[in-house]
Amino acid sequence: MAKKVETTALTGLGWTFLSNHGHVLLCLAAEPEMRLRDVAARVGITERAVQRIVAELEHAGYLERKRCGRRNRYEFRPTLHLRHPVEGHRTIGELIDFVIGQRAASGSPSEASGRAKAAGRGLKVPNGASTRTHISTRRRSLSVFCQAKPGRQD
Q: Are the C-beta atoms of residues 77 and 68 closer than 8 Å to each other?
């Protein structure tokens, strides 16, 4: 008799290559102001589990939470290395670049200081490209990966 494999409603598979921590980080990199409720729906876990994961990522220094009015904004540190020895030679920024195709930028730098701010974050803006346009294009591609479900706009 064939052994039944447990599946999840979200993927239809019993397992994925990335952990929930990775999925939460990718969603928040794509949409820094995404509500944790929406992250939970996107990842397929409870809101409480997302809260715990965010707290762990903050405690480890991978995420920083900033209050913006009634919402939180999450920024990640792209230069920190992954935790497991097998992938420890890679950074969070490289993971996000690999999975999503382009890294999220935190904030909207002005043209005058945009290139310097982007460089400080480890972002590469092509020569001759407008920093604002480049960051805007990168955000759009990230949004495709992790689109927020429609909800309240606080």
A: no
The values of phi and psi at residue 63, to 5°, are -125, 150
- pLDDT tens, 66-123? 998 999 999 999 999 999 999 999 999 999 988 886 545 443 333 333 444 444 445 5
pTM of this prediction exceeds 0.85: no
Distance of alpha carbon 154 from alpha carbon 38, whole angstroms: 13
Domain with 85 in it: 20-145
Burial of 72 (0-12, 13-18, 19+ CB in 10 A): middle
Look up the CATH number of the domain holding residue 53: 1.10.10.10
Look at residue 75 and tell me if it is in a domain: yes
